[in-house]
Design a protein that fits this description.
Blueprint (H helix, E strand, L loop, with lengths): L1 E4 L4 E4 L2 H14 L3 E6 L5 H12 L3 E7 L10 H5 L3 E5 L10 E5 L3 E5 L5 H5 L5 E4 L2 H22 L22 H21 L4 H14 L7 H16 L3 H89 L8 H17 L1
Parallel strand pairs: 3-4, 4-5
Antiparallel strand pairs: 1-2, 2-8, 3-6, 6-7, 7-8
C-alpha cells in the first residue's frame, strides 16, 4: 500500500513486494551514482543489479555491517569492477544500523527495509521514497560522514568531528578533503582573530565619535580630523604590539601545522585504501586469468578428444556405410527360374502358333 504526496515525488510504501519492486526499479534506472547503507545485505537479486550497474560504469558505493550474515555474498566481485564496499565493525553494543540508498543524488529510499531475502519474503517493513532535496542531501552527508569515520578508524586515526557538507560531494567525483580542511582552518582563524579583537571598546568608540560630531555641530570641514582622531583612538585601543602579533602568528602556524598533518593523514589513509582495493582487484583479476586458462585447457582437451576419438569413429562409420553401399551396387544376384510361369507361357505360345 502506498500513500503519495502531490507536492513531491514521495511515497510511503509498506508492502514488501512493492518495496522490493521500487528499490529494484530505482537501481535499474540509475544513470550515474548509487549509494547504499544497509546493515544486512543478503539479497542476491539486488546484488546482481548492483553488479550489472557497476559493470556499465555507474558509480556504486556500499556501506554494510561487518557481520557473519554479510559473508553470504561475494562483495569482492563488486570491488573488482570498481565499486567501493566498506564493512563497519560493531563498537561496544552499537552497530551500523542504517537502511537507505540514494540514487543519482535525486531520490532517497529510507526505512526499516534491510536488503535481505528475509525482508523481501517474510518481514513487515516500510520505507519512504522521496526526492525532497533537503532529505536527500542530509542522507548524502550522513553517508559520507560514516565513510570518513570508517576510513579514519581503518587508518588508526581519530574519527573526524566535522560533517562533510553534501554541497562538497561532486557528481561522480571523490570528496576533496582539502576543501573540508580549508573550511575548518578558516573557521579557526576567524575565531582566533575574533578572540583577539573582542576586547575592543566599541561603545566607547561610538560615543567618542558622537561627542566629536556634536562638539563641531556636524561641521564637515573638521570631519577628516575627527575621523583621524577616531582612527588613532581605534589603533590605540587595538594595541597590537609585536609580542601580541607574534603570539597570534604562533597560534596560526600551530593550527596550520595541525591541519596539514590531518590532511596528510587523511590522504595517506585514502592512498592506503586505494592500494588495498587495487591489490584486491589485481588478485581477483589474476584468479580470473587462472580460471580462464584452466577453462581453455579443458576446452582444448574436449576438442582434441572430439578430433581423435569421436570424429575418427564417425569417419570410420561413414567409410563402412559407403563400402556397404558400394558392395550393394556391384553385387548382382540372378533371379531364379519360375517354371510355372515359363510352362504357361510356352503352352500359350504353341497354341497361338497352331492357331495361326
Amino acid at each position: 500500500m502506498a500513500f503519495e504526496n502531490s507536492e513531491l515525488d514521495q511515497q510511503v510504501i509498506n508492502d514488501n513486494k512493492e518495496i522490493y519492486a521500487r528499490i529494484s526499479s530505482e537501481l535499474t534506472n540509475a544513470s550515474s551514482e548509487i549509494l547504499v547503507a544497509a546493515s544486512w545485505f543478503t539479497d542476491n537479486e539486488l546484488f546482481d543489479i548492483l553488479l550489472l550497474k557497476v559493470s556499465t560504469g555507474i558509480k556504486v558505493e556500499l556501506i554494510i555491517a561487518d557481520n557473519q550474515e554479510n559473508e553470504k555474498l561475494d562483495f569482492s566481485l563488486l570491488t573488482a569492477k570498481g565499486a567501493v564496499v566498506i564493512k563497519i565493525k560493531n563498537v561496544g553494543y552499537g552497530m551500523m544500523h542504517q537502511k537507505y540508498c540514494i540514487i543519482d543524488k535525486r531520490m532517497a529510499l529510507h526505512g526499516s527495509y534491510n536488503w535481505s531475502v528475509n525482508a523481501r519474503k517474510n518481514n513487515h517493513e516500510s520505507i519512504i521514497a522521496t526526492d525532497h532535496k533537503a532529505t536527500v542531501e542530509s542522507l548524502i552527508t550522513n553517508f559520507y560522514n560514516i565513510k570518513a569515520k570508517a576510513n579514519a578508524i581503518l587508518a588508526g586515526l581519530e574519527p573526524p568531528i566535522a560533517e562533510i557538507p553534501a554541497s562538497l560531494v561532486k557528481d561522480n567525483k571523490p570528496i576533496d578533503n582539502t576543501l573540508v580542511i580549508k573550511s575548518e582552518y578558516e573557521k579557526v582563524l576567524d575565531s582566533m582573530i575574533a578572540a583577539e579583537v573582542s576586547s575592543f571598546n566599541r561603545d566607547g568608540l561610538r560615543k567618542q565619535g558622537y561627542d566629536r560630531s556634536e562638539a563641531n555641530n556636524g561641521d564637515h570641514n573638521v570631519l577628516n580630523k575627527a575621523l583621524d582622531t577616531l582612527y588613532n583612538g581605534f589603533i590605540n585601543d587595538i594595541d597590537v604590539i609585536e609580542d601580541k602579533k607574534r603570539r597570534l602568528l604562533a597560534k596560526i602556524d600551530e593550527q596550520k601545522t595541525k591541519l596539514q598533518s590531518q590532511l596528510k593523514d587523511k590522504n595517506d589513509s585514502l592512498i592506503g585504501n586505494c592500494g588495498t582495493e587495487f591489490d584486491v582487484s589485481k588478485e581477483n583479476l589474476n584468479n580470473k586469468i587462472i580460471n580462464l586458462k584452466a577453462e581453455i585447457l579443458i576446452n582444448q582437451s574436449v576438442v582434441n578428444d572430439l578430433k581423435q576419438n569421436k570424429i575418427q569413429n564417425l569417419l570410420k562409420k561413414i567409410d563402412e556405410v559407403e563400402e556397404a553401399i558400394r558392395l550393394s551396387l556391384t553385387a548382382f544376384t540372378k533371379p531364379g527360374i519360375k517354371w510355372l510361369e515359363l510352362i504357361t507361357t510356352i503352352i500359350f505360345a504353341l497354341g497361338l502358333l497352331v492357331y495361326l
